[in-house]
Amino acid sequence: MLGDERSIARGAATAAELAEAGVVAVAFSYIDNSGIGRMKGVPVGRLSEAAAWGVGMSPVFDAFLLDDSITASPSAGGPVGDLCLVPDLDQLVVLAAEPGWAWVPVDRWEQSGVRHRQCQRELVRSVVARAAERGLHARMAFEVEWMLSVGFGDEFVAATTASAYGTNRVVELSEYCVDLLRALSGQGIEVLQIHPEYAVGQFELSVAAADPLTAADRTLLVRQTIRAVSHRHGLHPSFAPAAFVGGVGNGMHLHVSVWDDDENLLEGGDGPHGLTTRGEAGLAGVLTSLPALLAVTAPSVASYLRLQPQRWAGVYRCWGLENREAAVRLVTGPEGASTGAANAEVKPIDPTASPYLVAACVLAASLAGVDAEARLPGEVTVDPASLDEAERAALGVERLPTSLEEAVAQLEASDVLRHALGPELHETLVAVRRAECQLFADATDEEVVAATLWRH
Q1: Lesser CB count within 10 Å: N end or C end of the chain?
Q2: CB of 100 closer than 8 Å to CB of 24
Q3: 3-state class of 369 per DSSP?
Q4: Which of 253, 250, 274 is nearest to 264 (CA)?
């Protein structure tokens, strides 16, 4: 509730602690429907008031495109109206790589005191609540990939050309990697691993799983920290899905498991590879909704430069145990590992996506599968691109949308995602995606890469 005494008191106490720690300002942070991080900075002395009443920000940002141009839908766009950005102080973090700053994710409220119907964090909560009604909860973790360029020019100049997954890449950038790990640890982020990835100058970082809202918050914080540490080292990070035409781009794969109390539904059952009945149904629900989900998980025109066969991007609608070419990869973990390790990796996701929208929509699709008692198609145990069309058809394997236009059409027709998002946000997402398609309607692949390389 806006303006309650508890928020005022909590904000005052937090402000005093932050001032004692040398914090001067707090970044009120959220991400828009094009996957661009937005913020407003609040001096620490105003945190008490801001925690109670929020800070103003126009709802027009729901209709912003990635180049900061603006579209409109009946539910978004235009100069009229104002929202309140209300900080979630339970998630506030003092930024280790940005001295004097703290960071906090925000909920968006109407000035009338009701939550904004297009608030992405509230969307996650609503789907999590639907899961709880069924006695279920989810754990999620996003992998973060990025490429490092030397300096801050428009061209990408790889900070290291050492081998993919190679020791030399870390040797060349060892101080950078250590500083990044120290900063994340200082902010309470549990890093599971960091390693050089396949593309030139590329790294990947994995963090521990959490509830869906925390996982999405954490992804924003991780990316801000990567950017801050990179800049301190004179490096420019790109989170774009494509840094080069024809090259392997950056992904943001999601690992997810669904639980009933302390029972992981992806292990210990009688189904394929130990899936329980509801675990299988949840994965089947994700597979069913994948064509529409792509407008959420791969939401930019540039996304489809990355989504190519035989690049481990998951462009075929199929599943398989440890199959990195399947859109849904089942991970059971090594024999003898602790129970609870099993999860599913949803692969056709990249950093132009909002992690909140991804978390909410993937979970909603999974719940739709559970409700429908859906069953998985046959498992694909090879690279689906190696099969001919008849073999893929026999297994029910389909190519996912190959353009944003195709994915948007699927999103518009999806009752599952319309219900999950609500009519206003569903309508706005369709409008934003169509406007971005129009933005690049006459662009070459090279022009798309150049326009999106540094935006996210």
Answers
A1: N
A2: yes
A3: helix
A4: 274
Q: Which of 282, 202, 204, 209 is nearest to 247 (CA)?
A: 202
Distant-in-sequence, close-in-space partners of 68: CB < 8 Å, separation ≥ 6: none
Give the pLDDT confidence of 321-332 residue by residue, as tens digits: 999 999 999 999
* Token reading at 255: 């690992």
Residue 204: phi, psi to the nearest 5? Answer: -135, 140
- Which pLDDT tens digit goes with each residue over 263-273? 999 999 999 99
From CA 449, how far away is CA 241, in angstroms rounded?
9
Give the architecture-level CATH label for domain 127-452.
2-Layer Sandwich (3.30)
Please tell me if the domain spanning 5-116 has the same topology as the one spanning 127-452: no
Show the tokens assigned to 377: 């198609």
The answer to whether the pTM exceeds 0.85 is: yes
Q: In this predicted structure, what is the pLDDT of residue 3?
A: 66
* DSSP secondary structure code for residue 44 in this structure: G
Domain spans in the chain, listed from the N-terminal domain onward = 5-116, 127-452
For residue 89, the 8-state DSSP code is G
Angle of helix 355-372 relative to helix 120-133, nearest 10 degrees, comes to 20
Both tokens of 65, joined, read 């495109």
Class of domain 5-116: alpha beta
